[in-house]
Every structure is written in C-alpha cells, then in structure tokens.
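Summary for the steering committee. The consortium agreed at its last meeting that each partner would contribute one worked example illustrating the joint modelling workflow. Our contribution is presented below. We chose a case with several input lines so that the handling of multiple components could be demonstrated. No manual editing was applied between input and output; the record is shown as generated.
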Amino acid sequence: MIIKKFENSFQDFGKDIIKKLDILGEYCIFTFEIFRHIFSRKLKAKHVFRQMTKIGVNSLPITAITLLFVGMVFTNQVTQEFTKIGAGKIIGGIVGFAIWRELGPLFAGVVIAARVGAAISTEIGAMKVTEQIDALRSMAINPFVFLYVPRFLSLIVMVPLLITFANFIGFMAGLGIYTTLYHGNPVAYFASASHMLTPIDIYGGILFKGPIFGFVIATFSLFIGSKTQKGAVGIGRAATRSVVSCLITLFIINFFLSYLIF
Amino acid sequence: MIKIKKLKKAYGTHTILQNLSLKIPAGKKTTIIGQSGCGKSTLLRLILGLEKFDEGELWVGDDRITELPEDDLNKVRLQFGMVFQSAALFDSMTVGENVGLVLKEHTDMTRPDIKERVQDKLNLVGLNDTYDQYPADLSGGMKKRVAFARAIVNDPKVILFDEPTTGLDPITSTRVENLINKITKKTKATCIVVTHQISTILNVSQNIIMIHNGKAIKTEGPKNIMNSENKMVYSFVNGLIK
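What follows is the complete predicted structure of the assembly.
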C-alpha cells in the first residue's frame, strides 16, 4: 500500500516535471518566433509607436509616483541614520547608488510588470478566448507580426527609458527630502553623488537591466496571454500568472545582474 | 471544391473526427449539422488551416492543405472568409477598421477606396451608419452582420459560417439566414454553414452533411431531411432522444 502510494506520487512528480518542461519548450519556441518576425516586411512602425505610447507614455505617472515615494522614504531613513554617525555629507552618493543601481530599475520593472504585463496578458488572453486571434489568422494576418512583435519591441525600448525617468524622479525626490526635512545643502548632495557614482552606476541599470527586464515582461506576458483558455476565469488567471512570474523573475534576475554589472 | 479524405483529428486521447471523408461542391451552400461537440467547428478550423489534423488529406481546389507551409497557407486563406461563432470582432477597432483590415493588410488599395468598399459591404448587410462605431456599441445580431461584411469584403471564393444564428432571437435568426442567402447569391461563393439550428438548416441549405461519431453522413436535401430515412439524421433534426 505504502509502496503503491509512493509510486503514484513519484509518477505525479514526473508528470509535473514533463509538463513544466513542455511549457518551457513552448516558451522558447514562442520567443524564437518573436525574434524571427522582428524583421518581417509586414511589421508596421506605426503599430510599434502606438504600443510605445500605450506602454511607455501611459506608464509615466504611476512610475513617477512610485519612485517619488521610494526616493523620499529611502532618503528619509538614510539621512536619519547617517547624520547620527556624522556621514550626512555622503547622502547624495548613497541615494544615488541605491536609486540608479537598484531601486529605480527594480521598482520601475515591478510597476511595468504589474501595469503593462497584466494588461498585455489580459488583452491577448481575451483576444484568444473570443477567437480574435483566430480571426486574424483566418485573414492571413500573422499574430506575431500584428500583435506580439510591436508589444515586444516597445517594451524593449520603453523600459530603459522609463527606468531613466524613474531614476531621475527618485534621485530628485531624495534631494527634496534632504534639503527640506533635514536642511541639507543641495550642492553637497550633488557633489557627493558626482564624487561617488561612476558612469556604470548611472548607465548599468538603464542599459543592461532595462532591456532585459523589458524582454522578461514582454515574453512572459505575451506567452501567458497567448495560452489563455477557459473564458473569463482563464483571462483572470493569465493576468495573475503573468504578474507573479514576471515579478519573481525580475527579482531573481536583478540580483544576478547587479552582481555581474556592479 | 473542398475534398476531405480519411481525416482524423484528436485532442489528446479524445478523438473528434475519425476517418471523415466528404466533398463540398463549389458554388453551393453546404450545411454541416450534428450535435454539440461532434467536431463541426473543428472541421471549419481544419479547412482554414487554423489547426493541424493528425491523419488524412484535405484539398482546397488544387491545394493540398496538409503539405502547405504557413506562407502558402496564407495565400489559400485569402480565398476564404470566415464568420466566427462569437463574431470575433476586434474591440479596439471601429466597425469600418474591422471590415477593412484584410484589405489594408493585403492589398495596395488607397484609404478612400477601402472606405468605399467597406461601406458597400456594410450597406449590403444593412448596417449603413455603423462605420465609425465600436463593436461594444452594437447588438449581437449587428455584430454578426459586421462579421459577415468582414468575411466578404475581399470577395472570397469560400465563405465559412460557424453557428451564424446561435444565440439570436427567431426574427434576427431569419434576417441572418436571409442575409446568408443574399450574400451567396450575390457573390456566387461556396458556402459552408455549421449549425444545429433547424430553421437555419431548412432556410439556407442546398446540401446537408451530418457529422456523427466523427464520420460524415450524407443526407437528403432540406426538403426531405425532416423525414430522413437515416435514423441518426431523423432523430437529430426532430430532436428525438434515443
């Protein structure tokens, strides 16, 4: 009896592994297909620009608000503790490190994954379950060219730009707290930042983390959306799955990227 | 003509179509009937190449669908117009954009020419003033008619209708059936209608095929089908429970 139970659970475990490998394989093929269609002659620049506006410009307010408060709360804590040990003059550099290297890229990534990733999964998922993607194919319109590649490219381009914007807002929010609540000298804030930060601190998060975060958010949300089944419940599940997988992957990748870049 | 030979389609261990062979004559309205889940809609998707089948042959004219790569399959797809069960209109586009999409993507027609053609087709389906409206603003019957206009906008040789009257009230159903007759008369296209609505079967069909247990059963025409000599067909059209 016990052996039988053990056998069954072992079989279930094996089936689960095979299923997950199957999904991984499908994801790799899907990603390959996206790359294969990037240079399609049928790809229209206006579709990409439309998505850039939708994804990038419309994400500016929420990214700004998030980084504004992240910058403020971080600077508040750091300034309190650092002034106690007489290190108030290096606040600009510390905030700069934290924001440009980690907090800006990561929080911008989280915001975009939650706002844009969920929206893409939901939109594509709804199109899938209401046969709109089949309708496209029936009209000899390739969904990769028409739907997936424009969203993919716009995320690859817009995430680094949003991170740049987020970093600026976060850093300036820090300046605001430093000068108003703690009466710090703005010149000292900028001087310590320019003294401590190297170019790679400024560009590393934008140029390396940005496109990779964009790639993760785009491919995960598009793939999960394109596999949606079972009506409204399926669409809801796709959105949740997309956000959860994007967030977990962003946190993991962020650690390794930070380790390698800085 | 569409020719299907010994077709098999299964989803996992569940076989939907088995050893299915049939011919759909060109220029006629063929109705495919059968119980829910018997594989009628799957058959349409297989004809369009939206899904792959497991065994058999499928010919559209001289093109053997089985062997065609995606690019060639797209050329075949342009000969088709499909009206999906849910209408499948693109929510983010206006009615005009929905109907004109295939022309915009596959022809060199100018915008004014596309607009004129789209308006013509919308007039044909009785939706003269809906060009700038969004699908969300339309009723179910209107959405179906927009889907009709979209399916015929590039003058296809074959039009596929997947459950065109399901979920519509009797009056709207009759309007839709009349529209199918009007469109096919005007375009002279081959027409395949998948349905289990008796009124649609009787009002639209010239040729009726029933799918049962994955196989095709040739039936009498619409005049005699209600008294069919085949027990399966008779039970189905008269709604008899075995």
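Chain A has two domains: 1-37, 44-261. Chain A touches chain B at residues 42, 126-127, 130-132, 134-135, 137-142, 146 (CB under 8 Å).
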